[in-house]
Design brief:
heterodimer; A: alpha+beta; 25 strands; globular; B: PmbA/TldD fold; 6-stranded antiparallel β-sheet; 6-stranded mixed β-sheet; 9 helices; 20 strands; about 20% helix
């Protein structure tokens, strides 16, 4: 049970670090440990790589109303000696910080719900391949294709996090297992073959949405192998997005909300919810990188009400900040920002059954990378589309180029299913569900 | 194993110190251990870099956020060639035992001896910040308020000491310093918002010298962003068009870096994809395009005398008069072959092995006049003032690039502002459309991503005109 020893070690380092404050200083310490290992699973057997260890200690040094953040690779207590010296020199130019109080009570956190200590056993890995192969045989015929598992890579990342501060001299901690299952699927129809990768993420091997992953390969493969025809006038105004495409679109919406882009007043048919405790969400945590308790927060309500996520930096040293538990490092800076964790759409539950769907299905979304650094309020994405009859791909339908604002996308939602899988980015995950859009409310065009 | 001998001067080079010698000794130690345990080739890269970042956020004229952070990367990376395959491992300098443990897991390898941990500050970190550094934050708030903008401003200071030793006897150590300012400014008006990105870098910017010069530079960046953002308000949507496209200075280098620069990195080229296969020696355009990777550009963001494999960084002509003439290589890419090592190995930090990467992508001045290139034909032309981000599929050669600032110029002299224009198409087709290159070269900087590693690069180019490119707005 290396999780236990990693968490113990993380706690000791965090407590030791927080205890290095001099008189009139305070030191908050967040220790993150990660042990990551890749397993390639083939018919011939399992090839496992060496475990890769990657530990970081994040330190907030505060004195005289200003603070400086620094990070150190590793958890050796002595490595902080130089880092703290360097940080002290920067303190006169540090951030002015406000008083802060947590908005939420301590989260009730199941210490084992997000852990999987048996994912890497030889039995589990062998069973995984057998199960995928069985699902492939089941899912393929539903799209009139045959699916074969050509390659399968499971990455297991055991992570431990501990936080200590003057208020929490005894560190708080939690452990999470992050699993990534990447499958190379060979899709064949009438002697033509293509191979495509599909991936799903989660915490427990038994709970990974493997069937959804292979269904996605089936849609995509069948659409790519089918003949293509531009949708005619009878195609209707409804576009159904498969979970991965829906998550990519929602990712752009979330970025706008976090960046503070103005969104017109609702009503919207869906709520945008951030949930740090979401089952399957890659970025789960009971407390954030500043030690504040985390909990579900409505980013955008149906009436257009927005909740501002906060961290110690919010307010620029003025007043008292109520912490929502969303402090996280954005990637470039060591100063935590207010960032979401796991975001999903919430609507009234839909009875939609995608295996009987008639109409246009968007199985892939391209261009979201290009659209993340925009000047204006509209984004443009390309959706690869297929025409479905009775849940089967009848033919490929080219590409829909969609131009919209965040408010327009949200207003065009007509139905969504419950979120079953999350698609992780560097700082947060976005939930993917079957999502139905009313195209008549959006600007779009079909291209070949 | 020989001690480090061949030292190259670097941008921001300073006399060797005891800390430099300490890093060299650590690199030599790991290299010797790799060889002693039977590696065919061993290379140790040691760094003590420290990146200070000051963030400022101003919303509607009022300061809304600020942050000061220090990102320290003190570590060692060991590259080994064994059984004809590569292995890479790394560890913080304070925990050398971790690297020894990792090496010991290699089949047939023994356990290396670990050197003493290093926990102290580097010499560059001992430099105290200039007492007038606060003027920078004041200038940012003042200028953003005066311009009635929302501004996200980042001031970076980079300072690092590095050493590389390898089993061929090569060994170098070098220092680098410098800084960068980045501004994202948003203006509102006419029912729209317009965000503009501006940036500047200088190798002489140091925490200890940070006085009024930095504040003045920040003010200029913000005011320039304000003018450019306001010029975009009232933007229109024109749908999909195929027209002549003129790229402002700096922009062409960014586009060519993606379209052709990445394809000419040895590892990408070796994949022989539908796009990169047959690229060497191919005539890309009839225009007199000369594209070079030049690590010696004064004030270039990617300038360096030594690459991250410890080799002398050289200027590489990638495209000469429209014909592909060269490629970027690094130690791993040329290992075991007689190919020239261009000294283009770069890495994000010690946790990664180096890859062949660009330093400064430079389009040399051409023969054309900017005024002539900007003359709109009867159907008008697209003038691109800034690109924001882009993607290329190196298998198929399809690209998609977002231009955050553009104007559609008509023969009648109208200039219609456009936001987030997406240029897209096939890279080889696009390059064939290059029709004119002016001589007004300007420089820019960017962060370039490859295989999960980000490095800073320079982008330098003049005004360039393409006869026909397809775009959507």
């Amino acid at each position: 049970m290396h999780q236990t020893s990693d968490r113990y070690e993380a706690c000791r380092t965090a407590e030791d670090t927080a205890g290095r404050a001099r008189t009139r200083e305070r030191v908050d310490a967040l220790v993150l440990t990660s042990t990551r290992r890749k397993h390639r699973i083939l018919d011939a057997g399992v090839r496992s790589g060496a475990p890769l260890r990657n530990d970081t200690t994040l330190v907030r040094l505060a004195a005289g109303g200003r603070d400086v953040h620094t990070s150190v690779h590793g958890t050796a207590p002595d490595s902080l000696v130089g880092a703290l010296e360097a940080a002290r020199r920067l303190l006169p130019f540090g951030r002015l910080y406000a008083e802060a109080r947590p908005l939420l009570p301590d989260t009730t956190w199941d210490q084992v719900a997000f852990l999987d200590n048996t994912a890497e056993t030889p039995d589990s890995l062998a069973r995984l391949l057998t199960e995928l192969q069985g699902l492939a045989e089941f899912v393929g015929p539903r799209q009139d294709v045959s699916l074969r598992i050509a390659d399968c890579v499971l990455t297991v990342d055991h992570r431990a996090t501990a936080f200590a501060s003057p208020e929490r001299p005894q560190a708080a901690d939690y452990g999470v297992t992050r699993l990534e299952l990447r499958t190379l699927v060979e899709v064949e129809r009438a002697g033509r073959r293509i191979r495509l990768w599909t991936a799903r993420h989660g915490h427990r091997l038994r709970e990974l949405p493997m069937k959804e992953s292979l269904e996605e390969a089936g849609w995509r493969g069948a659409a790519m192998l089918a003949s293509h025809a531009k949708p005619g006038p009878g195609a209707g105004n409804t576009l159904m997005l498969a979970p991965r495409a829906a998550a990519s679109l929602l990712g752009l919406v979330v970025k706008d909300l976090v960046d503070g882009f103005p969104v017109s007043t609702g009503p919207f048919p869906a709520t945008v919810l951030d949930d740090p405790t979401a089952v399957g969400g890659y970025h789960v945590h009971p407390f954030d990188e500043e030690g504040a308790p985390s909990g579900p927060t409505v980013l955008l309500g149906r009436t257009g009400t927005r909740t501002q996520l906060t961290c110690r930096g919010s307010g620029d040293g003025q007043g008292t900040v109520a912490l929502t538990g969303h402090a996280a490092r954005g990637g470039e800076s060591e100063v935590p920002e207010a960032l979401p964790s796991n975001v999903r759409l919430e609507t009234a539950p839909s009875d939609y059954a995608h295996d009987e769907y008639e109409g246009l299905l968007a199985y892939d979304l391209r261009g979201d990378g290009v659209q993340r650094m925009r000047s204006g309020s509209c984004f443009t994405v390309r959706l690869d589309v297929a025409r479905l009859r009775e849940g089967k791909v009848a033919h490929g339908a080219g590409t829909v180029v969609l131009t919209a604002t965040t408010a327009e996308v949200l207003s065009a939602i007509t139905a969504t299913t419950p979120t079953r899988s999350y698609f992780p980015g560097r700082t947060h995950s976005v939930g993917g569900a079957w999502l139905s859009l009313d195209l008549s409310a959006l600007r779009f065009e079909y291209v070949a | 194993m020989t001690a480090p001998t061949d030292r190259a001067p670097d941008v921001g080079a300073e006399p060797e110190s005891s800390f430099d010698r300490l890093l060299e000794a650590v690199a030599a130690h790991w290299c010797e251990e790799g060889v002693r345990l039977g590696a065919q080739y061993a290379q140790a890269f040691v760094e003590a870099t420290s990146h200070v970042r000051l963030d400022s956020t101003v919303r509607h004229g009022a300061r809304a956020g600020h942050g000061t952070s220090l990102d320290r990367r003190f570590g060692v990376g060991l590259l080994l060639r064994r059984r004809d395959s590569w292995w890479y491992g790394s560890a913080p300098l304070a925990e050398p035992g971790l690297l020894a443990e990792r090496v010991a897991t290699l089949q047939g390898f023994g356990r290396p001896r670990a050197p003493e941990p290093i926990t102290r500050c580097s010499e560059l970190e001992e430099e105290r910040p200039h007492r007038d550094l606060y003027l920078l934050t004041e200038a940012i708030t003042r200028s953003a308020a005066a311009a009635d903008l929302s501004v996200d401003f980042v001031q970076d200071f980079f300072r690092g000491q590095r050493a590389v030793v390898d089993s061929t006897g090569a060994g170098r150590s070098w220092r680098s310093t410098g800084g960068r300012q980045r501004c994202a400014a948003t203006a509102w008006g006419q029912g729209q918002q317009a965000r503009v990105f501006t940036r500047r870098n200088a190798p002489h910017w140091r925490l200890g010298d940070a006085g009024p010069d930095l504040a003045l530079s920040a003010e200029k960046l913000i005011l320039s962003a304000a003018d450019r953002a306001r010029a975009l308000l009232g933007s229109r949507r024109l749908g999909v068009r195929t027209t002549p496209v003129v790229l402002a200075p700096r922009v062409g280098a960014a586009l060519l870096h993606e379209l052709i620069g990445h394809a000419l990195e040895a590892d990408n080229l070796a994949k022989g994809s539908r796009y990169t296969g047959g690229l060497m020696g191919a005539a890309l355009t009839s225009a007199p395009l000369r594209l070079v990777d030049d690590p010696g550009v004064p004030e270039g963001m990617g300038s360096c005398a030594t690459d991250d494999d410890g080799q002398a960084a050289t200027r590489v002509v990638l495209v000469d008069r429209g014909v592909v003439a060269g490629r970027l290589t690094c130690t791993r890419a040329v290992y075991g072959s007689s190919d020239l090592n261009t000294g283009s190995g770069r890495r994000e930090d010690y946790r990664h092995a180096s890859l062949p990467r660009a330093s400064n992508t430079v389009v040399l001045p051409g023969p054309d006049s900017t005024a002539v290139l900007l003359e709109p034909p009867r159907g008008g032309l697209l003038h691109v003032g800034a690109l924001s981000s882009g993607e290329i599929n190196l298998d198929r050669g399809e690209f998609s690039f977002a231009a955050s600032e553009s104007h559609f110029l008509t023969p009648a002299g109208d200039s219609i502002p456009l936001q987030d224009v997406v240029l897209f198409g096939d890279a080889r087709d696009a390059l064939r459309q290059l029709a004119g290159i002016a001589d007004d070269v300007e420089g820019d900087n960017a962060t370039c991503g490859k295989q999960g590693q980000s490095v800073r690069i320079g982008l330098h180019s003049p005004t360039m005109r393409f006869d026909q490119l397809t775009w959507r707005c």
